[in-house]
Amino acid sequence: MKAPDNLTDEQIAVWDQLMTRVLTLNERIWEQNINGDLVRDWLHNFSGKTGAPVEVERLHGLYLLSQFMYFGIREIRVLLRSLYRDLFLMPLAKEVKDRTNSIEEFRSEIKRELDATRFLGVGNPSESGVHLLYYFRQENQLSKEAFVDAARLYETKSANGLRYRVPRFSAVKRYIFLDDLCGSGQTAIDYSKDFLPDLTAADPEIKVHYFSLFATRSGMQRVRDETVFGANSGAVYELDESYKWGDVSSRYIVGLPDAISLDILLEIVDVYGRALHSYYPFGFQDSGLLLGFSHNTPDNTLPLIWMEQMHGSEIPWYPIFKRYPKK
Amino acid sequence: MSNISMDNQIDNPFDLTKASDFSDRQVIDFWVDMAAGQSSLVSFIKPKSKTPMFLLGGKGSGKTHLMRYCSSTVQNLRFQNLREAVTSEGYLGAYTNADGLNVHRFKGKGQSDDIWETVFAYSFELWLASTFLEALEPALADIELRSLEWQRIFISLVRPLFNSEIDSSVVDFKTLLVYLNLCRKKVDSEVNHSAFTRSLTGIQINFNPGALVFGLPKIISSTCSFAEDTLFLYLIDEVENFTPEQQRFLNTLIRYRRENVSFRIGARLYGIKTYETLGSGEPIKQDAEFEPVYLDAMLRENQSQYESLAVSLILKRLEASKSYRFIGADRLAEKFNEVSSADYFRKASLEVTAGRDSAGKDRPHLQRLRRALDKAIGDEEISRSVVAQLSFLDNPLLEKVNVLIFYKRLSKKVDLFKLAEEINEEMLRLIEKGPSGAPDYYNTYSHFSSDLFAQLCRDYGKKPIYAGLRTLIRISQGVPRNLLSLLKHIHRRSVFLGESPFDENPISVEAQASGINDASAWFWEDAQPDSHGTLVRGVVENIATLIRTIRYSENPSECDLCSFKVITSDLSADAIKVLKMAENWSYILKVNTNSSSKNDDRTSTQYQINPMLASRWGISESRRGVIEMKSSMLEILTSLIDPEKVKKEISERVEEMNLPKILENKIFLTRNVRQSGLFDG
After folding, report:
1. Searching chain A, which residue's CA lies closest to the CA of residue B10?
2. A111 and A224 both lie in a single domain
3. Which of B9, B355, B497 sits opposite A36 (nearest CB)?
4. Are A139 and A181 members of one domain?
5. Is the same domain home to A98 and A121?
6. What string of pLDDT tens digits covers the 327 residues of chain A?
7. Any chain A CB within 8 A of the CB of B10?
8. Closest chain B CA to residue A9
9. Residue B197 phi, psi (nearest 5)
10. Which positions of chain B have pLDDT values less than 50?
11. Are the beta carbons of B352 and B465 closer than 8 angstroms?
12. pLDDT per residue over B308-319, tens digit each?
């Protein structure tokens, strides 16, 4: 896509560099999910609302796009292996090793622990946490029996005319909840409040864990502080504040090319963000992320990337990486 | 037909560009030759000539592909039978790559250069001997290797090649090969361990230099009737990896070559570090003892042959990917959009100026002229009248031609208004009657149209456009890998723009221009002039900046400029060295060594900035004009000590080609005299 007219030589040079970067990212990382037409349509969303010339806004939009982090299915599979190994199996193995005296005893105890463990996705079967389970099972060569549908965690009993729910699988002592992203932590908090108290109350020996592929530092802290998962929570990749748009330490605003103005960058995200989502212009709970997955783009990402009218945008907007809503 | 692969990615048929990465099958599949009636590419390597050859060329010029095409494994595939191939072609190619020898091991570790020279010669000869036997084996498999008698005779002839008794396990062809490989591994091990042991005494050298390299082929000729007249070629590639000392051994083998053995040595342009031999050091003699062949220069000089080769190369790639419709050679050019020069670039140049034209803004070249005239003659009315005569809204390119001719014809005696009026009339005659209606005007147009179009683009904040099949071929300059790289990048740009390259619609100019830029960046980065990289790049940048400044001046002295000539005998050793390095890394190309300078009888050398880099600076990719560069200027451009001095030198050189100087000399001093006739009558 050619640089628009009316840019300076320096801006044209940066435009070309950014477009080349986007092209390379698309080929190498973004699984060829976009093309020149989509980029053009998306850049045409920027219409001069900030007061800067339209072409200059589009140049800055292109810069934002060039910073987008995308994790394709190959990367997700590797991360799922890492999650199982580093967050679950190794700590478990260490714990078992500390209380066993021989390799035979260790093996037998590990088997017992694994038999008493079940993996679940956060959310209902149509959501991304559950979606990951299929790949998680494949990558870690687990049996189908190691998984359970969250809807079947409880069975209903009645006594004295009262109906109440009790854990269905008495032999299971450890439930591992998996998620792709812990942004604000709210999903895990809601899940913990609505779903898990009866599980742990029924049997104090039952442990619940929450593991996600990615988590913002603040989101994961909330999960640790405000849920029954507590310290049994973790992420393969913890995103510090530098991954947050607008933070003073934000990596997206460090080392800007001369042709890119920080003020215009901040302004386009703010102005268009507000037009797209007046309550959360920087993404759900103002997470300010700039990332997406092959299976979906989280709502914690800047709305500029994924918003469209079907998500409630008040202005016409073409997304560059679509989001499939929970509805 | 779809060109989308299983994983939904669009195949790029130009992805694989290095012949060293090819399988033997791909060496054949991707092989293209000159058009019928022209000499085959194989003839460049003269496989039946006993004279050893240095096959030299820039990166990607096709050395490896050509050498591997002549190797025994590919001969075998081509004929489905190596014996038949050898009989039919009259040679057997034993191909090896110097890179695989890890030649850097043979130095230091507490040993003298003499010792390393001997150890390397021994190890290298073992390597060549085993390469030769491995290359030959399939040709002997069905007959000789099944004959106990032949094996017995063969080994009895081999034994005397060694100074001491060889291992008793060596009883036939196969065990000889095993033995040679074991010997080589033993040398490798000793060499590798010498870093700790500081000793090489475990190596027993048990044959004289050349004994195996020449002895084994001779034995084969004498014992295999089919190979009686066969020439055995050692095809040794990437010899630039050898140190000068190691090359001396190779040169010695070349000097003492025997009847049925010859060598083809592949190397980069800078790859031959010495022609000296071991012992006295006397160099091997060109033509008498070896022949140098500069592959890319040969292809470059045979433009029409290279063009048909390039077309075949592209079609072969499309054909091999099996995802593209058949395209006839004569239709390939249609698959690339070009900037239309119809009606003297009318439509193309109007597209460039449309935005500003519709906003009612003046065209920059006219604006500059009017301001300069105002200043020079101090009369706004006159300058407006002159500019109005030269202005031609309907065709911005012809308008620029008008202005250029105005600058070129200015003299102290000319009436400015009349001059502008004449130019305008000539332009109208050209439009009405064609070139014959205004031959002088057309001459300037035909020389400078591409420069003026590039200037127009630049004035309007757009990049100069490079597009069209012929342009691509010209940019690649006889180097097939350059062509493939250009196409690889163009293909990916085209796909990204949602096009279907090589399908019904042609590839857009935009995709081509972007792809050419990408390939240019790759070429700039890919060449890694090791020890003097910064210097070489800086110097090329300086020279290109001068050329660019001239091209984009108001009154360029030359058209389609990308070349310069210089009397090299006047240059300092440092300047010559840096030019040589730039040439070795193909940043610049030596295009003519015999041209004489306009004002000097001495021989000058002409260089061209590699067209692969043209888009980097927006200079011309085609070689028409050439600037003469004084040695003093080149000395400044080849020294990076003082960037300000370089800037000043370039600015002074181009000053006369720009406003206000163009007018100052010709108008300002005599304006009172000349303007008298302006409003006569």
Report:
1. A32
2. yes
3. B497
4. yes
5. yes
6. 778 877 888 898 899 999 999 999 998 999 989 999 999 999 999 999 999 999 999 999 999 999 999 999 999 999 999 999 999 999 999 999 999 999 999 999 999 999 999 999 987 766 777 789 999 999 999 999 999 988 888 888 888 888 888 888 888 999 999 999 999 999 899 888 888 888 888 788 899 999 999 999 999 999 999 999 999 999 999 999 999 998 888 999 999 999 999 999 999 999 999 999 999 999 998 899 999 999 999 999 999 999 998 888 889 999 999 998 765
7. yes
8. B461
9. -85, -20
10. 1-8, 669-681
11. no
12. 999 999 999 998
Residues A232 and A249 in one domain: no
pTM (predicted TM-score): 0.81
Domain residue spans of chain B: 47-301, 342-459, 530-641
- Cβ of B497 within 8 Å of Cβ of A5? The answer is no
**Same structural domain for residues A81 and A186?**
yes
| Residue B363 C-alpha, separation from nearest chain A C-alpha, in angstroms | 14
Which of A219, A239, A259 is the last residue in one of the domains?
A239
φ/ψ (deg, to 5) at B48? -100, 5
**Tokens 């591997």 appear where?**
B68
How many other C-beta atoms lie within 10 A of the C-beta of residue B261? 23
Classify residue A1: in a domain, yes or no: no
What is the overall mean pLDDT for chain B?
89
Residue A169: Cβ-neighbour burial (10 angstroms; 0-12, 13-18, 19+): middle
Whether residues A6 and B355 touch (CB distance < 8 A) is answered with yes
- Does residue A321 lie within any of the structural domains? no
- Amino acid B108 reads G
Is B461 part of the contact surface with chain A (CB cutoff 8 Å)?
yes
State how far the Cα of B66 lies from the Cα of B74, in Å rounded to an integer. Answer: 11
Contact A301, A285 (CB under 8 A): no
**Phi, psi at B53, each rounded to 5°:** -135, 140
Asked if B622 and B476 touch (Cβ cutoff 8 Å), the reply is no
Indicate if A109 and A193 belong to the same structural domain.
yes
Q: How many domains does chain A have?
A: 2
Claim to verify: residue A305 and residue A282 sit in the same structural domain: yes
Complex ipTM:
0.72
The residue segments making up the domain with residue A45 are 9-66+243-311
A250 and A200 within one domain? no
Q: Which residues pair with B75 in a beta bridge?
A: none
Shortest CB distance from A23 goes to which of B460, B492, B498?
B492
- Please answer whether residues A185 and A239 qualify as being in contact, where contact means their C-beta atoms are separated by less than 8 angstroms: no
- Condensed to tens digits (0 to 9), the pLDDT of residues B319-350 reads 888 778 888 899 999 999 999 999 999 999 99
Kindly state whether residue A316 falls inside one of the protein's structural domains.
no
CA angle A205/A210/A214 to nearest 5° reads 165
Give domain status of residue A94, yes or no.
yes
Both structure tokens of A154: 């409880």
Neighbours of B176 (CB within 10 A): 23
* Alpha-carbon gap, residue B426 to B113, rounded angstroms: 74
Residue A148: give its domain's CATH number.
3.40.50
In 10 A of CB B505, how many CB atoms?
Answer: 12
